[in-house]
Design goal:
Blueprint (H helix, E strand, L loop, with lengths): L6 H11 L4 H27 L4 H12 L2 H6 L6 H21 L2 H17 L4 H14 L4 H30 L13 H16 L8 H21 L1 H6 L1 H27 L7 H4 L3 H17 L3 H34 L8 H4 L2 H8 L5 E4 L2 H8 L4 E2 L17 H13 L4 E6 L11 H4 L3 E9 L2 E9 L1
Parallel strand pairs: 1-2, 1-3
Antiparallel strand pairs: 3-5, 4-5
Length: 457
């Protein structure tokens, strides 16, 4: 494991070591993570707006009906636990600036250090925490610099150790990635497309540019409202520091995300990859709303109307996603590979009864692991596909080379092939792979086949 951060896999491994199946471990991890996000966000909002039940309840509703969190939270992905780590680290940094209690700083350092091990872009949490402490602490500059520097070094230390391990086993710090094929126009378009789904209950394919203009106008109005309300902010250190820590993280994450996408190829600017800024954006929106209520200027009132409209759209979009999630849970169960179709897979049942001793490849390695415990690598893709391009072997020559190496070492090599055609658009089919491999049928089942590879042509 090099291309992906290791923490989620370690958590699943602990569940398996405790005697639970990967499926049950994934369910527990997602449930605990989602509960932690709601709990921490609720506590933070309550601390900020204890005198205004309307604002903190409205903010909590926005967290509960956060569309991307409802969409990806039930999946066995890193999004929910990463969001929990991010929010916990930011919250503890904020509490430390107010109380000066070392325990909050220790918790923040620990949680921010775990974030890059959950997802490499968690480096943005460490950077945001360091910048916030340098900016927000009420101590002399040299002390702020020392605390912020120590925070960043300790926060990056575990990732540095993991990167050195990666280099020792693979010759690369974070895996081999293909060059990016993104241009600025595509980045902007996909970002606006993802963001507009958060506040519009339906998709308007031809209105993304218009939404971008509206969003910029609302953001500009909100900035003017903040500028006019700076006196109120200076009189409320809690609101000011919360706005700073949330804003610095949103900026840090966004800049690192765009910079990474400019250099290497991966999944597009989807709602999933923008999810980590969603809850901090709720926090920022609640603070701007609070300032709009306090300030009587026309700009503040305009910002208030705009934020209210966005909040209503956010709740409607989230409510529709929640209804869709409940419907899916009742009819097919949640997730991609937790449906009744995958649970009743004849291929998975066969592999639970007949363990494969050797190297395994599959066009669907994820359900193979979750349903049977078999660890497999993905069969090669044709491209362009940003998700598949992160795997190794990524293309046909690399795949054939790896298979040949295993056979030369006397190891058995298997291919578990599912008949599901959903990935046939960007992956080599079994018929195409058959032109390069010598295959022996091990078992044919209703939803897949198991082959043994005996040679490379």
């Amino acid at each position: 494991m090099v291309s992906y951060a290791p923490l989620l896999s370690w958590i699943y491994a602990l569940w398996v070591a405790a005697g639970l199946s990967p499926q049950v471990g994934a369910i527990i991890t997602s449930a605990v993570s989602l509960g932690a996000v709601v709990w921490i966000a609720g506590l933070w909002l309550r601390e900020l707006f204890s005198v205004s039940n309307r604002i903190w309840i409205g903010g909590l509703l926005a967290v509960l009906l956060c569309r991307p969190l409802l969409w990806y939270g039930p999946y066995a992905l890193s999004e929910a636990p990463f969001m929990a780590l991010v929010l916990s680290a930011l919250w503890n940094s904020w509490r430390y600036t107010h109380t000066q209690q070392p325990r909050f700083l220790i918790w923040s350092v620990l949680l921010s250090a775990l974030s890059p091990l959950m997802r490499y872009i968690g480096v943005s949490v460490v950077v945001a925490g360091g910048v916030f402490l340098l900016w927000g602490l009420s101590v002399p500059l040299h002390q702020r610099f020392a605390i912020a520097s120590g925070y960043v070094m300790l926060g990056l230390f575990p990732l540095a150790l993991w990167a050195l391990r990666n280099h020792a086993v693979s010759g690369t710090f974070f895996g081999v990635r293909e060059p990016s094929d993104y241009n600025l126009r595509q980045m902007v378009f996909e970002t606006l497309w993802s963001w507009h789904r958060w506040v519009f209950p339906v998709a308007f394919e031809n209105s993304v540019s218009l939404f971008g203009i509206v969003l910029l106008l609302l953001a500009g109005t909100a900035w003017l409202a903040l500028y006019r309300s700076r006196r109120i902010l200076t009189q409320s250190p809690a609101l000011y520091s919360a706005l700073c820590v949330a804003g610095v993280f949103v900026l840090s994450y966004s800049l690192l995300f765009v910079a990474t996408a400019s250099g290497v190829k991966f999944e597009g600017f989807s709602e999933r990859l923008w999810l980590p800024i969603s809850i901090p954006v709720v926090l920022i929106g609640a603070i701007v709303y609070r300032l709009g209520v306090s300030e009587r200027s026309w700009m503040s009132r305009t910002a208030l109307v705009g934020i209210t409209a966005l909040w209503l759209g956010w709740l409607c979009s989230g409510a529709l996603m929640a209804a869709s999630t409940v419907q899916q849970a009742l009819s097919h169960q949640l997730g991609v590979f937790s449906t009744a179709q995958w649970h009743s897979s004849e291929t998975a049942g066969y592999l639970r009864q007949h363990r494969l001793a050797g190297k395994v490849f599959s066009n669907f390695p994820e359900p193979l692991f979750y349903l049977t415990g078999v660890v497999a690598q993905q069969t090669p893709h044709k491209g362009p596909m940003r998700v598949a391009s992160e795997t190794f072997p990524r293309n046909l020559p690399q795949f054939l080379q790896v298979v040949r190496q295993h056979l030369e070492r006397g190891e058995q090599v298997y291919i578990v092939w599912y008949n599901d055609p959903s990935r046939s658009g960007y992956m080599y089919t079994m018929g195409e792979l058959n032109q390069y491999l010598v295959l022996r049928d091990v078992q044919r089942l209703s939803d897949g086949q198991v082959y043994q590879v005996t040679g490379v042509l």
